[in-house]
Each structure stands twice: as C-alpha cells, then as structure tokens.
Amino acid sequence: MSNVTYEIVEHDSGWAYKVDGVFSESFPSHAAALKAAERAAAEQRVPGHTEEIQFEDEKGKWHTETARGSDRPDTSVKDKS
After folding, report:
1. Measured between alpha carbons, how far is 64 from 60 in angstroms, rounded to an integer?
2. pLDDT of res. 36
3. Maximum Cα–Cα distance across the chain
4. What is the DSSP string of the chain?
5. In terms of Cα–Cα distance, which of 42, 26, 48 is closest to 77?
6. What confidence score (pLDDT) does residue 1 get?
7. Burial group, residue 6, by CB count within 10 angstroms (0-12, 13-18, 19+)
8. How far apart are CA 6 and CA 11, in angstroms?
9. Tens-of-pLDDT digits for all 81 residues of the chain?
10. Contact, 15 vs 2, CB < 8 A?
11. Residues 38, 6, 78, 75: what is their CA dihedral angle, to the nearest 10 degrees?
C-alpha cells in the first residue's frame, strides 16, 4: 500500500499543504491549512467503487486495468512548523 503525505508549508503569503511537490490553495492561517490537509487526507482514504480504467502510456499504447475501490493509500499530515 502506498503512503501519501500532506506537508504544511508557508506559501504565497500564507499557508498551504503540499503533496508530491504540488501546492494546495493558500490559507490565511497555519490552523486553516492544517485543517484542510487533515480533511483531504481523510477523504483520500475513503473507499470508492471498483471500476475499469483506460489510460495511454508515454509511448502512446493504451492499457485497460481494474482499479479496486478498496485500494486506498495510507495518508499522513506532516507539520514542519
């Protein structure tokens, strides 16, 4: 199982959370960014429906896979402040 970490950081004259180098929107306070990260992390753990997905790889080849709705990552929130 994979792990996704939400990191609370200062960003754009405020606070944000960052996942894999991508920033969320800015929040006016550290507490607001922390609350948003905790909410997002919790939502990502919620199981969904099993579905068939199709995607194209970098070489232009199409693939079909079954994405299990129960295959959710572990999530955590890291606060560096």
Report:
1. 13
2. 98
3. 45
4. --EEEEEEEEETTEEEEEETTEE---BSSHHHHHHHHHHHHHHHTS----EEEEEE-TTS-EEEEEE-TT---EEEEEE--
5. 42
6. 64
7. buried
8. 14
9. 689 999 999 999 999 999 999 999 999 999 999 999 999 999 999 999 999 999 999 999 999 999 898 989 899 999 976
10. no
11. 70
Task: State pTM to two decimals.
Answer: 0.76
Residue 53, token pair as written in the block? 């997905």
Residue type present at position 7: E
Length of the chain, in residues: 81
Strands 3-11 and 14-19 come out as antiparallel
Q: What angle do CA 2, 3, 5 make, to 5 degrees?
A: 155
**Residue pointed to by tokens 């948003």:** 36
Q: Where are the domains of the chain?
A: 3-79
